[in-house]
Write a structure and sequence with these properties.
The protein is 72% helix and 0% strand. With 130 residues, it is mostly helical.
Amino acid sequence: MGFAAHKAWTTGLNSLNRRTIELTKQGATLYTVQLGLNLLFMPLFFHWKRPVAATLDIVVLTGVAGYMTYIWSQVDEVAGYFLAPYVSWLGFASYITAGAGYLNNWSFADKERPVSSKDAETRYVDERPE
């Protein structure tokens, strides 16, 4: 992803074609948006346990990354090829996220395990019987 961004950015901004420069800047904006969506996914899914919001986030992220790939492939074909595995991974991650939500009736609230009553010995699992 980083190499594709670098390749598209340097190729696009060194171009004399005005349309290529426009596409480069549009792709850079999409790159920033997808980074933000990517950053938001983990807390939504794992910390706040919001599978509906996480699924919506990753589906939008997949769309933004796909469009970014399309835009940057017009600037530099190699950059588009380097983004293809990322978009494929996002498609698979969308499937997993939606599947986890669906199989758990779109609620992870009842899936939490209680924290151990022991003070400092262990935090999550009672490892030693008393």
